[in-house]
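Re: [ENG-882] Designed sequences occasionally contain unexpected residues at chain ends

Forwarding the minimal case from QA. Structure tokens:
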């Protein structure tokens, strides 16, 4: 009888993920990387992104043994426009309209 040993599953269990992201550009080689700890995490927030810009985003999982998965498919998503800029612009336009009204 042959004794078959079970592989050590702890070393293959997913410990977390890396999220790679950068401005969408076919020439881009380097990406920013954010580590996400925990195999049950289902969302993460990327900060320090520029407004109204398309970003390439992909993920890769890692194990306690340091093994990396293949990369996920790359998705391209655009950030929202800068609401602070928009509000400033609208207030400026409103003030300009009021200034013109006062001179009548």
């Amino acid at each position: 009888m042959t004794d078959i040993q079970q592989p050590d599953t702890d070393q293959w269990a997913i410990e977390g993920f890396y999220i790679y992201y950068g401005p969408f550009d076919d020439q881009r080689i380097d990406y920013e990387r954010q580590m996400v700890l925990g195999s049950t995490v289902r969302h993460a927030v990327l900060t320090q992104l520029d407004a109204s810009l398309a970003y390439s985003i992909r993920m890769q999982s890692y194990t306690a043994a340091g093994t990396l998965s293949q990369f996920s498919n790359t998705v391209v998503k655009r950030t929202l426009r800068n609401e602070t800029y928009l509000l400033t612009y609208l207030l400026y336009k409103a003030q300009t309209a009021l200034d013109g009204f006062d001179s009548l």
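QA comment: On inspection the terminal residues look reasonable. The chain has one domain: 9-102. Proposing we downgrade this to a documentation issue.
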